[in-house]
């Protein structure tokens, strides 16, 4: 759960950077929970606008590649 919409969107993008969800799974959007007042991920509905922009602009691909290299470097040390 995330306290703000901005933090939830950033975490959604980060999750897609770090994990390979494939074409049929994983979170695609966020929503404000009526029960707790925080934001959560959901795999239902329309893909989050910011996530869509990251994917379409190529920024997601760049971030994924940077994460792969970061992981490789950490394993060596």
List keywords for this structure.
77 residues; mainly alpha; two-stranded antiparallel ribbon; 2 strands; 53% helix; globular
Description:
By secondary structure, the protein is mainly alpha-helical. The chain has one domain. The chain is built from three helices and two strands, in the order αββαα. A two-stranded antiparallel ribbon has the order 1-2. The protein is globular, with a radius of gyration of 14 Å. The N and C termini lie far apart (32 Å). The mean pLDDT is 93.
Mean pLDDT: 93
Structural class: mainly alpha
Number of domains: 1
* Rg for CA atoms: 14 Å
Please count the beta strands (DSSP E, at least 2 residues each).
2
Return residue spans where pLDDT drops below 50 for at least 5 consecutive residues: none
Biggest β-sheet: count, sense, barrel? 2 strands, antiparallel
How large is the count of helical segments?
A: 3
In N-to-C order, the SSE pattern is HEEHH
What is the distance, rounded to the nearest whole angstrom, between the alpha carbons of the first and last residues? 32 Å
Residue fraction in strands: 5-15%
Q: What share of residues is helical?
A: 40-55%
If strands are numbered along the chain, what order do they take across the biggest sheet? 1-2
The shape is globular
């Amino acid at each position: 759960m995330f306290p703000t919409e901005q933090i939830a969107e950033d975490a959604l993008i980060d999750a897609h950077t770090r994990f390979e969800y494939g074409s049929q799974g994983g979170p695609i959007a966020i929503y404000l929970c009526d029960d707790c007042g925080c934001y959560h991920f959901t795999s239902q509905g329309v893909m989050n606008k910011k996530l869509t922009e990251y994917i379409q602009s190529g920024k997601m691909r760049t971030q994924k590649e940077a994460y792969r290299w970061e992981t490789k470097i950490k394993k060596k040390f």
